C-alpha cells in the first residue's frame, strides 16, 4: 500500500502546486493588469455639441520626483497667440489645413505654472507671471509636442491635484446627406484612470459606440453619460453619429461618404467581433488553466491506478539481486525510463565487484580506477561498455583519475569549444538513457505521460497561433495581455507535468509493481539511520552489496553515514559516489558553460476603434 500512497503523494504535490499557480494567476492577473500604482487620475470630460471639450483630471500622486502634470495629444495642438503673455509671442498661425485642437484655457493648482507646447515644438507659458519665464527652457526640454500641463518648480508634493483643460476640437467629420459621424479618441497612452466619466452634452445621438465596450452608458435628457475605469494605456474613445444639422458648429474638415450609418455599423461590427474573440479567448484560457490540474487527477484515476499489494514500509534485504544496478536506477529510482548520474557510479561499483575494473586509490579529492584486461566484454551490456570505454579513453595506461580528468577537461574547455563539446557529449552519454533501455523497460511497464506527445504539439501550436493571431492594442483592454500570459502559463504547466514520473500515469505489467514497492521499501531502510542500525548486517560483503544498490537508489551517503556510526569499516567503493559526485558535477557544468557560450555572438477620425481623432492622455513626469 505504501507505493500506491507514494504515487498519490507525488500527484497530490504536483496538482496542489499547479492549482495554486493557476488560481493565483487567474484571479490576480486581471488585478495586476488593472492596478493603479502610485500615480493615477480620476478623469471627467464633457464634450459639447459645439465641439468644445472640457477635461478635468484629479491626479493622485503617491511618488516623489515628479514636476509636471500634463495632458498630451497625438493630434496637432495649436495656441491662440492673443491668449499668451510671453517674452516673445509666436506669430499668428497660418491657415490650418489639417484637423487640429486649439487650447482655450489651462487651469492649474496653486504654486504651479500652466504651459503649452504646440505641434511645432514651441513652448509657451500660459500665465500672467512674467517671473515664471525663467522656467520656460526646462519646460521646453521636458514637455512633449502637443502637450498642455502644469509645471511645479519645486516638484509635485504627494497628494491630489485637479487640473482643468479647455480645448476646441476641430476633428475630421464624415457626412452624408443626413448624418454626421465623429470619432473622438480621448486617451490611448496614459496613466491609469481610476474613475472615468465622459458626458456628451447636447448631441442628438443616433448611433453610439464606446471603445472599449466595458463602460456603462446612461441617457439623461440631452446628456449621454459614459462611466467606468481605464487601466494604463487602454483606449478611451467615443464614436457616434448625429443628425448633420444638430451640430452647433459647421465642421471645417468634412469628408462626404455614402450611407454613414452602414459604414459605422460595419466598422464596429468587425471590431466587436475581434473584441469578443479576444475576450472569449481570455476566459477560455483562464478556464483551461484552472481545469488543467483537475484533468491530471482524472487521467490518473482512469489510467494510473495499480493493483494493490501489501509490502512493509522497510525491507531489510535486496529485493532482486539479479537486477543490474543501472537497471534499478532506471526502473525504480525517480522516473521510469530516465537515468541519472547515480547509474554511472553504481555501475563502476558493480564492475569493480565483478573484477572488470579495480578501485586502486581513494582520497578526499580523488578516486583512481584501473581497467583490467579481461575477455568478458561480451558479458557487458551496452551501458556497461559505454562506461568502460569512457574510463579507457580518458585514462592513462588504463588508469583513470577523476581529479586529473576534471583538470584536463577544464583546461580544454578554456581553449577549445570543439574539445569542450566532445567532452560534454561523453559526459552526458553516461547519464543519457540508452535506446535499448526503452525496449527493456517495456517488459515491465507501460509508461505514460500526463499528455500524449501529439497533444503537447497541438497545445504548442494553439498557443503559438493564439499569441500570433489574437488582436493587440489599447482597443482590446487587458485581454490580449491576459491571453498571452494564460496561454504561455498553460504551456508551462503542461511542460511541468511532463516531469511527473511516468509510473504515476503508467501501469506496471504482471506483478512488477510489487517489485517497485519492494525497492522503495529497501530504499526507505537505507536512508533511515535508526532503522538501518537495527537491521545492519554483520558481514562486510553484504554491506558492499547494499552500497551498490544504495548508490543506484541515490542514498549511498546514508549507508556510509550508518557504517561510520556503527563502526563498520568503510570500503573503498564508498568513495566513488561520495567523492566522484562533486567532481563529475563540476566538470559537467564546466563543459556545459563552454559549449553554451561558444555559439553566442558577442490625427485620424475614421470608422471603428482606434480610428478616432485625438489620442494621448494624462500623465505625470
Descriptors for this entry?
621 residues; six-stranded mixed beta sheet
Question: Can you characterise this structure?
Answer:
The protein contains 17 helices and 24 strands. The protein is elongated. Helix 4 (325-332) crosses helix 15 (540-552), helix 5 (341-353) packs antiparallel against helix 15 (540-552) and helix 7 (402-415) packs parallel to helix 17 (575-598). By secondary structure, it is of the alpha+beta class. Strand 14 and strand 15 form a beta hairpin. Residues 85-89 and 599-603 have low confidence and may be disordered. The chain starts with a helix and ends with a strand. The longest helix has 45 residues, at 260-304. The protein has an eight-stranded mixed sheet with strand order 4-5-9-2-1-12-15-14, with no helix packed on it.
Q: Radius of gyration from the CA trace?
A: 37 Å
Find the structural class using helix and strand composition: alpha+beta
User: Major sheet, described briefly?
Assistant: 8 strands, mixed
Please give the share of residues in helix: 40-55%
Q: Low-confidence stretches at least 5 residues in length (pLDDT < 50)?
A: 85-89, 599-603
% residues in beta strands? 15-25%
Average pLDDT over all residues? 83
Q: How many beta-strand segments?
A: 24
Total helical segments: 17
Quaternary state reads single chain
Strand order of the largest sheet: 4-5-9-2-1-12-15-14
Rough outline: elongated
Distance between the termini: 65 Å
Amino acid at each position: 500500500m505504501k507505493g500506491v500512497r507514494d504515487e498519490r503523494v507525488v500527484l497530490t504535490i504536483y496538482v496542489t502546486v499547479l492549482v495554486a499557480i493557476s488560481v493565483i494567476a487567474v484571479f490576480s492577473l486581471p488585478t495586476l493588469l488593472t492596478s493603479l500604482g502610485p500615480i493615477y487620475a480620476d478623469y471627467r470630460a464633457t464634450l459639447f455639441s459645439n465641439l468644445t471639450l472640457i477635461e478635468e483630471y484629479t491626479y493622485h500622486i503617491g511618488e516623489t520626483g515628479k514636476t509636471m502634470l500634463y495632458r498630451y495629444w497625438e493630434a496637432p495642438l495649436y495656441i491662440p497667440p492673443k491668449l499668451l503673455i510671453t517674452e516673445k509671442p509666436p506669430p499668428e498661425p497660418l491657415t490650418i489645413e489639417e484637423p487640429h485642437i486649439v487650447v482655450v484655457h489651462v487651469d492649474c493648482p496653486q504654486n504651479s505654472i500652466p504651459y503649452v507646447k504646440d505641434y511645432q515644438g514651441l513652448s509657451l507659458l500660459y500665465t500672467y507671471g512674467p517671473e515664471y519665464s525663467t522656467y520656460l527652457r526646462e519646460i521646453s526640454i521636458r514637455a512633449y509636442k502637443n502637450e498642455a500641463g502644469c509645471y511645479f518648480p519645486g516638484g509635485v508634493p504627494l497628494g491630489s491635484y485637479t487640473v482643468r483643460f479647455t480645448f476646441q476640437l476641430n476633428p475630421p467629420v464624415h457626412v452624408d446627406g443626413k448624418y454626421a459621424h465623429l470619432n473622438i479618441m480621448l486617451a490611448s497612452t496614459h496613466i491609469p484612470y481610476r474613475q472615468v466619466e465622459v458626458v456628451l452634452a447636447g448631441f442628438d445621438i443616433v448611433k453610439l459606440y464606446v471603445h472599449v465596450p466595458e463602460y456603462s452608458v446612461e441617457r439623461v435628457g440631452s446628456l449621454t453619460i459614459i462611466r467606468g475605469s481605464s487601466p494604463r494605456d487602454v483606449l478611451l474613445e467615443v464614436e457616434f453619429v448625429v443628425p448633420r444639422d444638430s451640430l452647433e458648429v459647421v465642421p471645417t474638415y468634412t469628408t462626404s461618404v455614402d450611407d454613414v450609418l452602414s459604414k459605422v455599423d460595419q466598422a464596429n461590427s468587425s471590431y466587436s467581433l475581434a473584441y469578443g474573440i479576444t475576450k472569449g479567448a481570455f476566459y477560455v484560457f483562464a478556464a483551461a488553466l484552472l481545469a488543467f490540474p483537475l484533468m491530471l487527477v482524472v487521467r490518473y484515476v482512469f489510467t494510473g491506478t495499480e493493483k494493490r499489494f501489501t509490502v512493509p514500509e522497510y525491507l531489510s534485504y535486496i529485493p532482486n539481486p539479479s537486477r543490474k544496478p543501472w537497471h534499478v536506477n532506471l526502473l525504480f529510482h525517480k522516473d521510469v525510463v530516465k537515468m541519472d548520474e547515480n547509474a554511472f557510479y553504481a555501475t563502476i561499483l558493480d564492475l569493480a565487484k565483478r573484477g572488470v575494473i579495480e578501485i586502486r586509490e581513494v582520497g578526499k579529492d580523488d578516486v583512481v580506477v584501473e581497467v583490467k584486461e579481461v575477455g568478458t566484454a561480451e558479458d557487458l551490456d551496452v551501458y556497461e561498455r559505454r562506461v568502460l570505454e569512457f574510463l579507457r579513453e580518458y585514462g592513462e595506461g588504463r588508469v583513470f583519475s577523476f581529479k586529473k580528468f576534471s583538470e584536463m577537461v577544464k583546461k580544454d574547455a578554456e581553449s577549445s569549444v570543439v574539445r569542450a563539446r566532445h567532452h560534454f557529449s561523453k559526459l552526458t552519454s553516461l547519464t543519457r538513457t540508452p535506446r535499448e533501455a526503452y525496449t527493456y523497460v517495456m517488459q515491465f511497464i507501460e509508461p505514460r505521460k500526463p499528455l500524449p506527445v501529439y497533444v503537447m504539439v497541438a497545445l504548442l501550436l494553439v498557443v503559438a497561433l493564439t499569441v500570433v493571431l489574437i488582436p493587440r492594442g489599447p482597443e482590446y483592454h487587458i485581454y490580449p495581455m491576459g491571453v498571452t500570459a494564460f496561454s504561455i502559463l498553460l504551456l508551462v504547466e503542461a511542460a511541468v507535468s511532463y516531469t511527473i514520473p511516468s509510473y504515476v500515469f503508467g501501469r506496471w505489467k504482471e506483478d512488477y509493481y510489487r517489485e517497485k514497492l519492494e525497492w522503495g521499501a529497501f530504499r526507505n531502510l537505507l536512508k533511515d539511520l535508526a532503522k538501518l542500525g537495527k537491521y545492519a548486517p554483520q558481514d562486510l560483503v553484504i554491506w558492499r552489496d547494499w552500497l551498490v544498490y544504495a548508490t543506484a537508489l541515490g542514498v549511498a551517503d546514508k549507508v556510509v553515514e550508518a557504517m561510520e556510526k556503527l563502526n563498520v569499516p568503510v570500503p573503498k567503493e564508498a568513495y566513488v559516489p561520495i567523492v566522484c559526485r562533486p567532481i563529475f558535477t563540476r566538470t559537467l557544468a564546466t563543459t556545459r558553460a563552454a559549449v553554451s557560450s561558444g555559439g553566442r555572438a558577442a490625427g485620424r477620425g475614421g470608422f471603428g476603434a482606434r480610428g478616432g481623432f485625438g489620442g494621448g492622455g494624462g500623465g505625470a513626469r
